[in-house]
Amino acid sequence: MYTGLQHAHSGLAYLVLLVLILVILWSLVGALSGREFQEKDRKIALIAFILSHVQLLVGLILYFISSKGYELLSGGGAMSDPVARLTALEHPVINILAIVLITIGYSRAKKLESSKAKFRSIYMLYAVGLVLILSRIPWENWIVTN
Ligand code: HEM
């Protein structure tokens, strides 16, 4: 189960990053063009929203079964080791925060009145979320093992 989830989390990461970038660009172009925010724009933003939530779920399970997650944190010593601190604390906390921002961006867009404000809510909050995600990816692990 661990290996399967590790591969799922790793593979989904590519998809989440790619889709976030595409949705940010799509919404930015939408805002700049001054066109009306349509149902298809909401659905496109929803794809990134769903993928990031699936990734959150897989990440949460992984956190409790991986030797690089809770086990490291509860064993002590993780705080003084930057590599251990990344997967045991920084990566989960910052990614949860990023997904909260993505959720706010999507939900606000549904409530806002003007099309420009809807597009802006998506591209701004998704972009901040993306930057946070990128800032705490365990690049060394990911690139070496894939
Ligand atoms: C959009 C959000 C996220 C992205 C893009 C992401 C991406 C990644 C990537 C690329 C890796 C390295 C995979 C590898 O070495 O093959 C990783 C590892 C890990 N992630 Fe995430 N992650 C996200 C959210 C989370 C969350 C919310 C948690 C926990 C609550 C989490 C827990 C972990 C753990 C424990 C590992 C180490 C797994 C292991 O190799 O044993 N991730 N993540």
Can you tell me about this structure?
The mean pLDDT is 95. The radius of gyration is 17 Å and the shape is elongated. It is built from six helices and no strands. It starts with a helix and ends with a helix. The protein has one domain (2-144). The chain is mainly alpha-helical. It binds protoporphyrin IX containing FE (HEM). Protoporphyrin IX containing FE is lined by residues 6, 9-10, 13, 16, 52, 55-56, 59-60, 62-63, 66, 68-69, 87, 91-92, 95-96, 133, 137-138, 141-142, 145.
The percentage of residues in β strands lies in under 5%
Low-confidence stretches: none
Shape: elongated
The helix/strand class is: mainly alpha
Proportion of helical residues: over 70%
- Separation of termini? 18 Å
Number of strands: 0
Q: What's the pLDDT, averaged over the residues?
A: 95
Reading the helices and strands in chain order gives HHHHHH
Global Rg? 17 Å
Query: What ligand molecules are bound, each kind once?
Result: protoporphyrin IX containing FE
Individual helix count = 6
Biggest β-sheet strands, sense, barrel: none
How many structural domains in the coordinates? 1
